[in-house]
């Protein structure tokens, strides 16, 4: 409704070169409105220009297993999220970083902005096996045994957290965002339970077929764009 003041800001990376990405990002924006999150569409870096853009951003390239993902798409997604971190830092207000397939399923609970953690996963795991909790709350990263974020499709970042992410990106370089966001790089990274967002995906712009097999929504109709 006109005149509404949303309680929190979100940023969703959107690949304008892919119509399906724009459609999903608009869906993310609408889901945010339902739960008090004002989601801003952020142009994503397309895979074809990602490595060139990486140089312009003066970021190194980390080593990672390219059998699961398209290197250009990984780098493009990383730079896009990097730019979302910069928006949070420049705005001097916390925000939620989102991928285009994310949708909100519940409001952001007060425990998130009141928590001492600067990076908090709010998205339900989108692939593989994962762990749940017995009661609501904020916990050290728990859903994946390796201590990494279970799909970087929805996570809350404070201004201090944005500064940490940017500094670590400059040090370590671009890599798959879900692997970059881990307890080794960010010891205080946390996770909320129950999760308040999901990745409702029908396609990927990043993974190769090998990287899609573990996705919960993967089926014969799942597209690799």
Describe this entry's structure for a reader.
By secondary structure, this protein is an alpha/beta fold. The strands form 3 sheets. Strands 2-1-3-7-5-8-6 form a 7-stranded mixed beta sheet, with helices on both faces. Strands 4-9 form a two-stranded antiparallel sheet. Strands 10-11 form a two-stranded parallel sheet. Strand 1, helix 1 (19-34) and strand 2 (37-43) form a beta-alpha-beta unit. The protein contains 7 helices and 11 strands. The longest helix is centred in the middle third of the chain and has 21 residues, at 71-91. Helices cover 31% and strands 19% of the residues. The protein has one domain (8-224): Alpha-Beta Complex (Spore Coat Polysaccharide Biosynthesis Protein SpsA, Chain A), CATH 3.90.550. The chain has helices at residues 19-34, 50-56, 71-91, 111-114, 159-172, 177-180, 209-212; strands at 8-14, 37-43, 95-98, 102-104, 119-121, 137-140, 154-157, 190-193, 197-199, 203-204, 223-224.
